[in-house]
């Protein structure tokens, strides 16, 4: 993760949040999917809910995931 996101404490917090959020969404991805999640500076002050919404939007844009409230 880039130092532009913040100091080491912030970068590790964002990394843990993203790891947790991606883990919750793995069942929505096709088997064998490889993904790189890159955190940008606005991720530093973002809440887990905001990061989750951004991750869901990115997956929808890539058509790798069904909407959270719809069938997979």
UniProtKB/TrEMBL annotation:
GO terms for molecular function: 3'-tRNA processing endoribonuclease activity; ribonuclease P activity; tRNA binding. The lineage of its organism: Bacteria, Bacillati, Actinomycetota, Actinomycetes, Pseudonocardiales. Pfam families: Ribonuclease_P. Keywords: Endonuclease, Hydrolase, Nuclease, RNA-binding, tRNA processing. This is Ribonuclease P protein component. One of its GO terms (cellular component) is ribonuclease P complex. Signal peptide: none annotated. It comes from Halosaccharopolyspora lacisalsi. SUPFAM superfamilies: Ribosomal protein S5 domain 2-like. It comes from the Bacteria.
